[in-house]
Protein backbone atom coordinates (compact mmCIF):
# COMPACT_ATOMS: atom_id res chain seq x y z
CA UNK A 1 0.00 0.00 0.00
CA UNK A 2 1.95 2.97 -1.32
CA UNK A 3 -0.52 5.82 -0.84
CA UNK A 4 -0.88 7.06 2.73
CA UNK A 5 -4.07 8.75 3.86
CA UNK A 6 -5.80 10.19 6.89
CA UNK A 7 -8.60 8.15 8.46
CA UNK A 8 -11.09 9.92 10.75
CA UNK A 9 -13.35 7.79 12.95
CA UNK A 10 -16.02 9.68 14.86
CA UNK A 11 -18.91 8.55 16.99
CA UNK A 12 -20.66 8.77 20.35
CA UNK A 13 -19.47 7.44 23.71
CA UNK A 14 -18.67 3.72 23.90
CA UNK A 15 -19.27 3.10 20.21
CA UNK A 16 -15.96 1.23 19.94
CA UNK A 17 -14.07 3.97 18.12
CA UNK A 18 -10.80 3.56 19.99
CA UNK A 19 -10.78 -0.23 19.80
CA UNK A 20 -11.38 -0.33 16.06
CA UNK A 21 -9.09 2.62 15.33
CA UNK A 22 -6.21 0.82 17.07
CA UNK A 23 -6.84 -2.30 14.98
CA UNK A 24 -7.03 -0.34 11.73
CA UNK A 25 -3.86 1.60 12.50
CA UNK A 26 -1.98 -1.59 13.36
CA UNK A 27 -3.20 -3.29 10.18
CA UNK A 28 -2.03 -0.38 8.03
CA UNK A 29 1.10 0.43 10.10
CA UNK A 30 -0.28 3.95 10.58
CA UNK A 31 0.05 6.33 13.52
CA UNK A 32 -2.92 6.09 15.88
CA UNK A 33 -4.15 9.00 17.97
CA UNK A 34 -6.92 8.63 20.56
CA UNK A 35 -8.17 12.21 20.89
CA UNK A 36 -10.74 11.16 23.48
CA UNK A 37 -7.89 10.12 25.75
CA UNK A 38 -6.51 13.65 25.50
CA UNK A 39 -9.79 15.19 26.71
CA UNK A 40 -10.00 12.57 29.44
CA UNK A 41 -6.46 13.47 30.52
CA UNK A 42 -7.37 17.15 30.83
CA UNK A 43 -10.50 16.17 32.76
CA UNK A 44 -8.39 14.09 35.16
CA UNK A 45 -5.93 16.93 35.73
CA UNK A 46 -8.74 19.45 36.19
CA UNK A 47 -10.61 17.31 38.71
CA UNK A 48 -7.43 16.56 40.65
CA UNK A 49 -6.62 20.28 40.61
CA UNK A 50 -10.18 21.26 41.63
CA UNK A 51 -10.64 23.35 38.47
CA UNK A 52 -14.33 23.60 37.52
CA UNK A 53 -15.49 23.32 33.90
CA UNK A 54 -16.65 26.94 34.09
CA UNK A 55 -13.09 28.28 34.56
CA UNK A 56 -12.12 28.48 30.89
CA UNK A 57 -8.94 30.52 31.43
CA UNK A 58 -7.53 28.08 33.98
CA UNK A 59 -8.44 25.13 31.78
CA UNK A 60 -6.77 26.69 28.75
CA UNK A 61 -3.58 27.23 30.73
CA UNK A 62 -3.80 23.65 32.01
CA UNK A 63 -4.19 22.26 28.50
CA UNK A 64 -1.32 24.35 27.14
CA UNK A 65 1.01 23.23 29.94
CA UNK A 66 0.06 19.56 29.80
CA UNK A 67 2.10 16.97 27.97
CA UNK A 68 0.02 14.07 26.71
CA UNK A 69 1.90 11.34 24.87
CA UNK A 70 1.21 7.82 23.69
CA UNK A 71 3.42 4.77 23.92
CA UNK A 72 3.00 1.08 23.05
CA UNK A 73 1.63 -0.90 25.98
CA UNK A 74 0.18 -4.25 27.00
CA UNK A 75 -3.29 -3.26 25.79
CA UNK A 76 -2.03 -1.61 22.63
CA UNK A 77 -1.28 1.87 23.94
CA UNK A 78 -0.34 3.65 27.15
CA UNK A 79 -1.41 7.23 27.81
CA UNK A 80 1.21 9.29 29.59
CA UNK A 81 0.09 12.53 31.21
CA UNK A 82 2.98 14.76 32.25
CA UNK A 83 5.19 11.68 32.24
CA UNK A 84 2.90 9.46 34.34
CA UNK A 85 0.98 6.46 33.02
CA UNK A 86 -2.69 7.37 33.44
CA UNK A 87 -4.10 4.79 31.01
CA UNK A 88 -6.40 3.25 33.62
CA UNK A 89 -7.18 6.41 35.59
CA UNK A 90 -8.68 8.23 32.59
CA UNK A 91 -11.07 5.34 31.84
CA UNK A 92 -12.90 5.24 35.16
CA UNK A 93 -16.55 6.23 35.48
CA UNK A 94 -15.43 9.24 37.52
CA UNK A 95 -13.85 10.68 34.36
CA UNK A 96 -16.58 9.43 32.01
CA UNK A 97 -19.20 11.36 33.98
CA UNK A 98 -17.32 14.66 33.68
CA UNK A 99 -15.42 14.53 30.37
CA UNK A 100 -18.27 15.90 28.23
CA UNK A 101 -18.43 19.10 30.29
CA UNK A 102 -14.68 19.69 30.14
CA UNK A 103 -14.36 18.76 26.48
CA UNK A 104 -17.10 21.26 25.61
CA UNK A 105 -14.90 24.18 26.74
CA UNK A 106 -13.87 26.00 23.55
CA UNK A 107 -10.52 27.10 24.96
CA UNK A 108 -9.60 23.49 25.75
CA UNK A 109 -10.69 22.28 22.33
CA UNK A 110 -8.64 24.94 20.55
CA UNK A 111 -5.47 23.91 22.34
CA UNK A 112 -5.98 20.18 21.89
CA UNK A 113 -7.03 20.43 18.24
CA UNK A 114 -3.72 22.14 17.45
CA UNK A 115 -1.86 19.40 19.29
CA UNK A 116 -3.83 16.76 17.41
CA UNK A 117 -3.12 18.32 14.03
CA UNK A 118 0.58 18.44 14.86
CA UNK A 119 0.61 14.62 14.75
CA UNK A 120 -0.28 14.76 11.04
CA UNK A 121 2.50 17.08 9.91
CA UNK A 122 5.16 14.44 9.18
CA UNK A 123 3.46 12.88 6.17
CA UNK A 124 2.66 9.57 7.87
CA UNK A 125 -0.63 7.81 7.51
CA UNK A 126 -2.80 8.46 10.55
CA UNK A 127 -5.93 7.00 12.12
CA UNK A 128 -7.58 9.40 14.53
CA UNK A 129 -10.77 8.89 16.50
CA UNK A 130 -12.97 11.24 18.51
CA UNK A 131 -16.11 13.35 18.25
CA UNK A 132 -15.10 16.01 15.70
CA UNK A 133 -12.23 14.52 13.69
CA UNK A 134 -13.95 14.51 10.32
CA UNK A 135 -15.68 17.85 10.86
CA UNK A 136 -13.00 19.94 12.62
CA UNK A 137 -9.63 18.30 13.26
CA UNK A 138 -9.10 16.57 9.90
CA UNK A 139 -11.77 17.99 7.57
CA UNK A 140 -9.73 16.87 4.54
CA UNK A 141 -9.31 13.26 5.68
CA UNK A 142 -9.68 10.89 2.74
CA UNK A 143 -11.75 8.40 4.77
CA UNK A 144 -14.34 9.48 7.33
CA UNK A 145 -16.32 6.96 9.35
CA UNK A 146 -19.14 7.74 11.76
CA UNK A 147 -19.40 4.70 14.03
CA UNK A 148 -22.41 4.30 16.27
CA UNK A 149 -24.58 1.75 18.05
CA UNK A 150 -27.70 1.85 20.19
CA UNK A 151 -27.35 3.33 23.67
CA UNK A 152 -28.38 0.00 25.14
CA UNK A 153 -25.68 -1.88 23.26
CA UNK A 154 -23.04 0.72 24.09
CA UNK A 155 -24.03 0.54 27.75
CA UNK A 156 -23.77 -3.23 27.72
CA UNK A 157 -20.30 -3.07 26.18
CA UNK A 158 -19.10 -0.52 28.72
CA UNK A 159 -20.57 -2.59 31.57
CA UNK A 160 -18.74 -5.74 30.45
CA UNK A 161 -15.55 -3.75 29.94
CA UNK A 162 -15.79 -2.30 33.44
CA UNK A 163 -16.41 -5.74 34.90
CA UNK A 164 -13.36 -7.13 33.12
CA UNK A 165 -11.24 -4.33 34.59
CA UNK A 166 -12.68 -4.73 38.08
CA UNK A 167 -14.68 -1.48 38.06
CA UNK A 168 -18.11 -1.52 39.70
CA UNK A 169 -18.95 2.15 40.03
CA UNK A 170 -22.18 2.03 37.96
CA UNK A 171 -24.75 -0.65 37.20
CA UNK A 172 -25.96 -1.36 33.65
CA UNK A 173 -29.07 0.81 33.84
CA UNK A 174 -27.12 3.78 35.15
CA UNK A 175 -24.48 3.33 32.45
CA UNK A 176 -27.11 3.41 29.72
CA UNK A 177 -28.65 6.58 31.17
CA UNK A 178 -25.20 8.15 31.46
CA UNK A 179 -24.47 7.35 27.82
CA UNK A 180 -27.78 8.92 26.75
CA UNK A 181 -26.94 12.00 28.79
CA UNK A 182 -23.50 12.27 27.19
CA UNK A 183 -25.00 11.81 23.72
CA UNK A 184 -27.33 14.75 24.29
CA UNK A 185 -24.57 16.91 25.77
CA UNK A 186 -22.06 16.10 23.03
CA UNK A 187 -24.51 16.57 20.15
CA UNK A 188 -25.91 19.90 21.39
CA UNK A 189 -22.76 21.65 22.62
CA UNK A 190 -21.99 24.94 20.90
CA UNK A 191 -18.36 24.21 19.94
CA UNK A 192 -17.72 21.25 17.63
CA UNK A 193 -20.88 19.26 18.36
CA UNK A 194 -20.98 15.53 17.70
CA UNK A 195 -22.37 15.31 14.14
CA UNK A 196 -21.35 13.20 11.15
CA UNK A 197 -19.32 14.92 8.46
CA UNK A 198 -21.31 15.39 5.26
CA UNK A 199 -19.06 12.90 3.48
CA UNK A 200 -18.76 10.38 6.32
CA UNK A 201 -19.66 6.72 5.88
CA UNK A 202 -22.28 5.82 8.50
CA UNK A 203 -21.69 2.50 10.24
CA UNK A 204 -24.03 1.11 12.92
CA UNK A 205 -22.21 -1.60 14.86
CA UNK A 206 -25.13 -2.64 17.10
CA UNK A 207 -25.40 -6.05 15.44
CA UNK A 208 -21.87 -6.37 14.07
CA UNK A 209 -18.86 -8.15 15.47
CA UNK A 210 -15.58 -6.29 15.89
CA UNK A 211 -14.16 -8.17 12.89
CA UNK A 212 -17.13 -7.18 10.76
CA UNK A 213 -16.66 -3.51 11.69
CA UNK A 214 -12.95 -3.78 10.88
CA UNK A 215 -13.67 -5.39 7.51
CA UNK A 216 -16.18 -2.68 6.60
CA UNK A 217 -13.76 0.14 7.39
CA UNK A 218 -10.82 -1.54 5.66
CA UNK A 219 -12.99 -2.05 2.58
CA UNK A 220 -13.71 1.69 2.48
CA UNK A 221 -10.02 2.51 2.93
CA UNK A 222 -8.99 0.17 0.12
CA UNK A 223 -11.71 1.63 -2.10
CA UNK A 224 -10.27 5.12 -1.58
CA UNK A 225 -6.67 4.05 -2.02
CA UNK A 226 -7.30 1.95 -5.14
Automatic annotation (TrEMBL):
Cytidylate kinase domain ranges (all copies): 7-222
Compartments, record wording: Cytoplasm
EC number: 2.7.4.25
GO molecular function, one term: kinase activity
InterPro entries on file: Cytidylate_kin, Cytidylate_kinase_dom, P-loop_NTPase
Positions that bind ATP: 11-19
Catalysis performed (reactions): dCMP + ATP = dCDP + ADP; CMP + ATP = CDP + ADP
Superkingdom, natural source: Bacteria
UniProt keyword list: ATP-binding, Cytoplasm, Kinase, Nucleotide-binding, Transferase
Coiled-coil ranges per UniProt: none
Family the entry assigns: Belongs to the cytidylate kinase family. Type 1 subfamily.
Annotated protein name in UniProt: Cytidylate kinase
Organism annotation: Aerococcus urinaeequi
